[in-house]
Amino acid sequence: MKARLVAIATAVLVVVFALLWGLGVGPFIALWPTDVYTPSAYRSLEGPGSTTIQVSIPWAAEEYCEGQVQIAATESTSTVEISQGAQRHRPFRFVPEACFGWGVKDVVWLNVRLAQPVGGRAVIRAVDGQTLPQLG
Questions:
Q1: What order do you get walking across the sheet with 79-82 strand by strand?
Q2: What is the reported pTM?
Q3: More confident of the two residues 106 and 18
Q4: First CA to last CA across the chain, in angstroms?
Q5: Is the Cβ–Cβ distance between 103 and 63 less than 8 Å?
Q6: pLDDT tens figures, 29-68
Q7: DSSP bridge partners of 52
């Protein structure tokens, strides 16, 4: 009787853990497989006073869906530091993800919202401190 209760409790814990992991709840999302992309350039989205820039990352797939890769900026008075892009993959899917992406070739531009316009600050990669080139 006691062994049966232990077996049931263990099975329940395994199912709960698998659900939390599969749904990415709390710290379990850190266990998801992740692809990392290094920014290669930036451009101003709306002109010199804009607080939105676009950052490019290399992209091998034929399509990209909005929000597929997360990227962030950390600002100081002299720099705008751009993180590496991260794309997390669900370890297994309960429901197939529907995504109507657009075709891309070799690069994807991601929008990054800033607190202040870039102005005279250097835009750098967080991973290596390299200055990103500004493209038209």
A1: 73-75, 79-82, 122-125
A2: 0.71
A3: 106
A4: 73
A5: yes
A6: 666 677 899 999 999 877 777 899 999 999 887 778 888 8
A7: 113
The CA distance from 87 to 68, in Å, is 6
Q: Beginning with the edge strand found earlier in the chain, give each strand of the sheet holding 52-59 in spatial order.
A: 41-44, 52-59, 106-113
Q: What is the CA radius of gyration of the chain?
A: 20
Three-class SS state of 28 = helix
Compute the distance between CA of residue 133 and CA of residue 114 in angstroms, rounded to an integer. Answer: 17
The pLDDT-based confidence of 95 (bands split at 50, 70, 90) is low
Q: Count Cβ atoms within 10 A of the Cβ of residue 80 and give its class: 0-12 exposed, 13-18 middle, 19 or more buried.
A: buried
Cα-based torsion angle of the residue sequence 76, 41, 71, 120 in order, rounded to the nearest 10 degrees: 20
Taking a C-beta distance cutoff of 8 angstroms, is the pair 124, 79 a contact? yes
DSSP 45-113: SSSTT-SEEEEEEEE-SSEE-TTSSB--EEE-SSEEEEPPEEEE--SS-SSPPP---EE-SEEEEEEEE
**Which one-letter amino acid corresponds to residue 77?**
T
> Beta-carbon neighbour count of residue 1 at 10 Å?
5
